[in-house]
Amino acid sequence: MSSTDLVPSTGAQAVQTLARTDGRQFLTFRIGEEEYGLDILRVQEIRSYEAPTRVANAPAFVKGVVNLRGVIVPILDLRVRLGQPGEYNAFTVVIVLNVAGRVVGIVVDSVSDVLELSAEEIKARPEVPAAMDARFITGLGKIGERMLILLDIEAMIQSPDFGLVD
Questions:
Q1: How far apart are CA 103 and CA 68, in angstroms?
Q2: Which residues have a Cβ under 8 Å from the Cβ of 13 and sit 6 or more positions away?
Q3: Spatial CB neighbours of 162, under 8 Å, sequence gap ≥ 6
Q4: Is the CB of residue 73 less than 8 Å from the CB of residue 64?
C-alpha cells in the first residue's frame, strides 16, 4: 500500500474542482420588474416578511427592528429606498445580511435563485443617469435573456444615506 492510497481521489478531485472555479455566486431577487443580484457571501438567511417593531422618527425606508435569536436587526425596505412602491404579500421576503460587521435585513419583492456568473458574464456598469446611485452597482450580469443589476450591498449599507454606520 502506497501513501497515495490513503488519500481518497474523490476528495482531492473535489478540492481541485473548487480551486478552478472562477465564477462568483449571486443571490438574485426582484424589486418591481427589475432583477438584482448580490454577493451570496453576504447573505446570512432568507426569512418571510413579518411586520417589524417601528422605530420613532426613522426614515420611511427603515421599517423597524426585529429580534432575531437575541440580535436586534434593523429592517430596511430596499424597494422604498430605490423609489419603488412596495406591496407586502406572500412572496415578500427579508434577506438577512451580514455586512460591515452588522446584521441588517432588506425587504424585497421576491428571491429568485442563486446564480454563478463567470467574469465573461459580468459587464461593466453603464454610464447613464440612474434612479440608484451608480456607485452601488458593480456591474450587469447577463445570462441568456436575463439581465441582473449587480449591487455592492456592503457599500450601499455603509453609505451615509442609510444612516446605519457611524
A1: 10
A2: none
A3: 76, 81, 156
A4: no
C-alpha cell at position 95: 434577506
What are the grid coordinates assigned to 109, written together?
419583492
Q: Which residues contact 42 (CB under 8 A, 6 or more apart)?
A: 97, 98, 99, 153, 154
Q: Report how far residue 163's alpha carbon sits from residue 87's, in angstroms, rounded to the nearest whole number.
A: 24
Contact 155, 161 (CB under 8 A): no
- Using alpha carbons, select from 46, 60, 159, 14 the residue that is nearest to residue 113: 46
Nearest of 123, 120, 133 to residue 161 by alpha carbon: 133
Question: Residues 15-71: pLDDT tens digits?
Answer: 333 333 467 899 999 999 899 999 999 999 999 999 999 999 888 899 999 999 999
Give the Cα separation of 131 and 121 in Å (integer): 24
Pairing of strands 62-68, 43-48: unpaired
- Give backbone dihedrals phi and psi of 79, rounded to 5 degrees, phi first: -65, -50
Quickly count: other Cβ atoms within 10 Å of residue 116's Cβ: 13
DSSP state at residue 53? B
